[in-house]
Design a protein that fits this description.
3-stranded parallel sheet; 128 residues; globular; alpha/beta; TIM Barrel; single chain; RibuloseP-bd_barrel; BtpA
Length: 128
């Protein structure tokens, strides 16, 4: 039989070099500017996310997803503030610095453009 289209790449295999993967989801505490934010410092929000990442990694997950889950009720994508994207970017970079696992970014609810901007990463700038 002749294939009509090319064989689809197995995304899990391509990303994780295995046929099955366990992915942990870091549900960040409420960010400044969100309805449920109660004054927790940004450094405490970041540290909590890093502790969650450490727990997942030590538990054997193969990858992580980072979400601003504490920001419920979620804003429409066009109403998400720059402060949310900025803090998600900081948390993502801190997790990347510490853990060598694939990362997914989900800026809730359904804010694909900020999530893609945060996830996009060039090679680190080296000082010469």
């Amino acid at each position: 039989m002749v294939a009509i289209s090319a064989e689809k790449t197995n995304a899990i295999q391509a990303i994780f070099s295995r046929s099955k993967a366990v992915i942990g989801v870091i549900h960040c505490d409420p960010f400044p500017g969100s309805p449920k934010y109660r004054g927790k410092s940004v450094s405490d929000i970041v540290e909590r996310a890093l502790r969650d990442a450490e727990n997942y990694i030590s538990g054997g997950v193969h990858g992580l997803i980072i979400e601003n889950h504490g920001d419920i009720p979620f804003s429409k994508p066009e109403d998400i503030g720059h402060e949310t994207s900025a803090l998600m970017a900081v948390i993502t970079e801190k997790v990347r610095e510490r853990f060598a696992v694939p990362l997914g970014i989900n800026v809730l609810a359904n804010a694909a453009i900020p999530a893609m901007a945060i996830a996009r990463r060039e090679a680190p700038i080296s000082s010469a």
